[in-house]
Amino acid sequence: NLEIAREIESAVEDALLEGRTVDIKNPNLKTCSTQEMGDLISKKLTSRLKK
């Protein structure tokens, strides 16, 4: 479903504004583990889908 795909993309973009994993780190953002990034994306997606 295209709508869900857009929500997933948006959740990933939102998460990337808060932090990055070591392989794509940004000096201005928090560095996190892949587990933490996955959790953050999941949290963002859940929040977006509840709207």
Helix/strand layout:
Layout: H1 2-16, E1 19-21, E2 30-32, H2 34-50
Parallel strand pairs: 1-2
Helix pairs in contact: 1-2
Q: Please mark out the parts with pLDDT under 50 across 5 or more consecutive residues, or reply none.
A: none
How far do the termini sit from each other?
Answer: 17 Å
Shape: elongated
**Structural class based on helices, strands and sheet pairing:** mainly alpha
Strands of the largest sheet, in order across it? 1-2
**Sheet of most strands:** 2 strands, parallel
Question: Per DSSP, what share of the residues sits in E-state strands of 2 or more residues?
Answer: 5-15%
- Please tally the β strands and state the result: 2
As for the number of domains, it is 1
Helix % is 55-70%
Mean pLDDT: 96
The number of helical segments is: 2
The ordered H/E elements are: HEEH
Q: What is the radius of gyration computed over CA atoms, rounded to a whole number of angstroms?
A: 11 Å
Description:
- This protein has helices at 2-16, 34-50; strands spanning 19-21, 30-32.
- It is mainly alpha-helical.
- The longest helix has 17 residues, at 34-50.
- The model has no long low-confidence stretch (mean pLDDT 96).
